[in-house]
Design brief:
By secondary structure, this protein is mainly α. Among the domains are: 48-129; 222-338 and 391-618, no CATH class. It is built from 27 helices and seven strands. A three-stranded mixed beta sheet has the order 1-5-6, sandwiched between helices. It has a two-stranded antiparallel sheet with strand order 2-3. The protein has a two-stranded parallel sheet with strand order 4-7. Strand 5 (362-365) and strand 6 form a beta hairpin. The longest helix is centred in the middle third of the chain and has 34 residues, at 234-267. It is globular. It starts with a strand and ends in an 8-residue tail after the last helix. It binds zinc ion. This is M2 family metallopeptidase.
């Protein structure tokens, strides 16, 4: 689930606003800014005082731009019309233009002797564009056009079935989740990938141009620029991700092995060979990135927890507002202040009957003070109750860092925001549900395997996917993967990390990476990998701080003021310090550690090993 907050990362927002927009949509008026920036760099002897003046001016501009932009985006997402789309796009364009100007001007201070805070703020500006444009106005305009085209191809993508039915991605996503018909799944899978071959020449050119832009800002290539966003050398960051993956892999391998066996039983071992990667269309998701939708196919026997939160919510007369109030209470139980009244009057909780809105759940921070909101079309289900806890995690984070300078009103690194939402959701355990009176008894530990399996299908299955998307892009941007190998390299990485393979031979023109939103949209992906690692470590650490004595998958930090204080200390820091300092506040360590995942899933791992005995695992 996403969050909307005040940062310079306008890309994601732009794509939400209108499919025709994407990163760095510079108009010719950029030229003036570029010239201005060049002039500044031509003036010799810039000083720290100049830097401070520049940063102060930008901060003022940013506050105004952010507020205008968020308001326009909010109105658009809540009243989708041609007019609101165009107003939101205009506001976003203004912000993006400003972002380009700031980044280039910030780069002119690269060799100036400034203090660490100034350097950190200048770096925030330099990193503000995920697709930096070259300084040449023509190339900059070309990059903007390409971005818009890629976004539009994806946004308008659809597939007409052999039976003549036109399906949107939403329709196909739902079929991928629910169909158990091998051929129908294959048709959906290949059908959606027909949208992307035309992206390939655009994507190739975009990589060239953005690389040139990144070099202009002083980075080796765009991948190196993305990897420079983590308070450590770019190469160390890549190594760090590999190290973390190495910790999780044994658990993933056992999950993969077990799921492959079960799918073999469902579809036949002629279709799911037991010594090869799993065909990518059978895992309940268009990208095989999370597998929770096939829980019914792999559910452990006798592991039903014996209650259904959706039914319990109905029995206890929970409507949408009561669900939100319930989730808010989780945070106040930790010692956080209650949400402001405007949260309740300004948020969107239910799908309006009379107009189009964007229903995808999101958390907003309009003014960097107290005007925080969520926008959700809440369904009265157990899963959505969980999502509300997650979204409020974003809101409480946003409010916690509101007193930081505008530059640092962000999560400690880009994995933290999602990780915090999910950390809170990990505390929505049977124990918590009992404490708030939603269920009567906590199921005994023998039932935990079912809950853990569901979590593992969603979260453990995701981890190698979360890693490989940028592994591929980094290699594309560094030139290691050439355009003629784009698709084959994509599948080599998917097989290597996920043990998942294309179900049929891919056409020479295929461009399967383009069928995943974040590739044409130009949104970096490592943050999702990080969030999946960090959330378990936060959870384990906060449970320990709360004095928990249960296994950590059973722990909820509900009611723990100690855990709340530690959490708040970290959230308040925003991105003002290297993320390692924020990490240390909760975990006691400056380095990430994926062993928390192994602890959390320990009972499932034992169970999986047992089930996999005598099998040929691996891919
Ligand atoms: Zn989220």
């Amino acid at each position: 689930m996403k969050y909307i907050t005040k940062t310079f990362k306008f890309t994601g927002l732009a794509l939400v606003i209108a499919a025709s927009l994407t990163a760095c949509n510079q108009e010719p008026k950029q030229q003036a800014s570029v010239e201005k920036a060049t002039k500044i760099s031509a003036q010799a002897a810039l000083t720290a005082t100049d830097a401070q003046q520049f940063l102060d001016n930008v901060a003022k501009e940013m506050v105004t731009l952010n507020l205008e932009g968020s308001r326009a985006a909010w109105i658009y997402a809540n009243f989708i019309t041609e007019d609101t789309a165009s107003l939101a796009a205009e506001a976003d364009q203004k912000s993006t233009d400003a972002g380009v100007r700031y980044a280039m001007q910030a780069a002119t201070f690269d060799d100036v002797d400034v203090n660490p805070t100034q350097r950190r703020q200048l770096n925030v500006l330099k990193q503000s564009l995920v697709m930096p444009a070259p300084q040449d106005p023509e190339k900059s305009a070309e990059l903007a056009t390409i971005g818009a085209k890629l976004g539009s191809i994806y946004g308008k993508g659809s597939y007409t079935t052999k039976a003549g039915e036109k399906l949107s991605l939403g329709d196909m996503t739902s079929k991928m989740a629910n169909s158990r018909d091998y051929d129908e799944l294959l048709e959906m899978w290949t059908g959606w990938r027909e949208i992307s071959p035309e992206m390939k020449p655009l994507y190739t050119r975009q990589a060239e141009l953005a690389n040139e832009g990144a070099k202009g800002l002083g980075y080796q290539d765009l991948g190196a620029m993305w990897r420079s966003n983590y308070d450590m050398p770019a190469d160390d960051f890549a190594k760090e991700l590999d190290r973390l993956w190495g910790q999780v892999k044994p658990l993933y391998d056992d999950l993969h092995c077990y799921v492959r066996t079960e799918l073999g039983e469902t579809y036949g071992t002629d279709k799911v060979a037991q010594d090869k990667p799993i065909p990518a269309h059978l895992l309940g998701n268009m990208w095989a990135q999370s597998w929770g939708n096939i829980y019914d196919l792999v559910a452990p026997q006798d592991a039903d927890p014996g209650y259904d939160v959706t039914k319990q919510l109905a029995e206890h007369n929970y409507d949408e507002i009561k669900m939100v109030r319930g989730a808010e209470k989780f945070f106040t139980s930790l010692g956080f202040d209650a949400l402001p009244e405007t949260f309740y009057t300004r948020s969107l909780f239910t799908k309006p009957a009379d107009r189009d809105v964007t229903c995808h759940a999101s958390a907003w921070d309009l003014d960097a003070k107290d005007d925080i909101r969520i926008k959700m079309c809440i369904q009265k289900t157990g899963e959505e109750f969980n999502v509300i806890h997650h979204e409020l995690g974003h809101n409480f984070y946003q409010r916690a860092y509101k007193d930081q300078p505008v530059y640092f009103q962000n999560s400690a690194n880009d994995g933290f925001h999602e990780a915090i939402g999910d950390t809170i959701a990990l505390s929505v355990t049977p124990k918590y549900l009992k404490e708030i009176g939603l269920i009567d008894t906590i199921p005994d530990e023998s039932k935990d395997i079912g809950l853990l399996m569901k979590q593992a299908l969603d979260k453990i299955a995701f981890i190698p996917f979360g890693l490989m998307v940028d592994q591929w892009r980094w290699k594309v941007y560094s030139g290691e993967i050439k355009p003629e190998n784009y698709n084959t390299s994509w599948w080599e990485l998917r097989e290597k990390y996920q043990g998942v393979a294309a179900p049929i031979d891919r056409d020479v023109n295929a461009f399967d990476p383009g069928a995943k939103y974040h590739v044409p949209a130009g949104v970096p992906y490592s943050r999702y990998f990080l969030a999946h690692i960090q959330q378990f470590e936060f959870h384990r650490a906060l449970c320990e701080i709360s004095g928990n004595t249960d296994p950590i998958h059973r722990c909820s930090i509900y009611n723990s003021k100690e855990a709340g204080t530690a959490l708040n200390t970290m959230l308040e820091m925003g991105s003002s310090q290297p993320w390692q300092q924020a990490y240390k506040v909760i975990t006691g360590n400056e380095q990430m550690d994926a062993t928390a995942i192994l602890d959390y899933f320990a009972p499932l791992h034992v169970w999986l090993k047992n089930k996999n005995q005598g099998k040929q695992c691996g891919f």
